[in-house]
Amino acid sequence: MKSDQTKWDFKYLQKASILSKPDQFFCDSIKLFCGNTILDLAGGDGKNSIYFLQSNFDVTLLDISIEGIKRVKQNYLEIKTIQMDLDNLNLVAQLPKFDNIIISYFKPSYDLWKLLPDLLNSKGKIFFHTFHIDQHYQKGFSKRFCLENNEFTYLSKEIKQVQHNKAEIDGNHIDCSIFEKIK
After folding, report:
1. 62, 122, 137, 141: which is deepest, by most CB within 10 A?
2. With contact defined as beta carbons under 8 Å apart, do 109 and 87 qualify?
3. Is the CB of residue 117 less than 8 Å from the CB of residue 173?
4. Percent of the chain at pLDDT exceeding 90
5. Considering the chain, what is the average pLDDT of its residues?
6. Beta-ladder partners of 131
7. What is the reported pLDDT for 9?
8. Do 105 and 130 touch, CB atoms closer than 8 A?
9. pLDDT per residue over 97-155, tens digit each?
10. How far apart are the first and last CA of the chain?
């Protein structure tokens, strides 16, 4: 949606030039990643992509914001970038396969979630890190961006949840999960 792109472009234009640190969940899980390729889904300005690039992974960042992507490309030309609206499932379905998909502070639609296993190589993994529903109840954060208990656990028969943890990180209620492609 154009309004989503405009919103995120504005956010990245207003943001300080120093990138945030990568999400600790991904740093703590790095030994669990398989293969060498990573799709950073809704990766913004690349804080996690940069970490994985520096850890010798082949990284592709996908985001709706052209301004977020410009921030990545200023210093990290090795990161492949794709500017795309994740609501356009036909375009998403045309992406190549990856060994790993990372999702940080983004709640995919059910239709997008069901498509993600098709983007994974055999035994590929999804590392999912986003707001838990407690963020809504205790902090007033919008419910539509928060993950309910087990909300995505059984949506696809092609992946299984192999690790799950709810944590409080920097005062936020976060759901951290790892899913693995069954075949």
Report:
1. 62
2. yes
3. no
4. 66
5. 91
6. 174
7. 60
8. yes
9. 999 999 999 999 999 999 999 999 999 999 999 999 988 988 898 888 888 988 888 88
10. 33
Query: Residue 55: CB partners within 8 Å, gap ≥ 6?
Result: 30
- The whole-angstrom separation of Cα 14 and Cα 140 is 24
CATH architecture of 2-6+37-181: 3-Layer(aba) Sandwich (3.40)
For the chain, the DSSP string reads -HHHHHHHHHHHHHS-SSPPPPPHHHHHHGGG--SSEEEEET-TT-HHHHHHHHTT-EEEEEES-HHHHHHHHHH-TTSEEEE--TT-HHHHTTS--EEEEEEES----HHHHHHGGGGEEEEEEEEEEEEBHHHHHHH---GGGSBPTTTTTTS-TTEEEEEEEEEEETTEEEEEEEEEE--
Provide the 10 A C-beta neighbour count for residue 128. Answer: 25
**Tokens standing for residue 109:** 């639609």
Which pLDDT value is given to residue 1?
54
Sketch the domain layout of the chain as residue ranges: 2-6+37-181
Question: Structure tokens of 22?
Answer: 């990568």
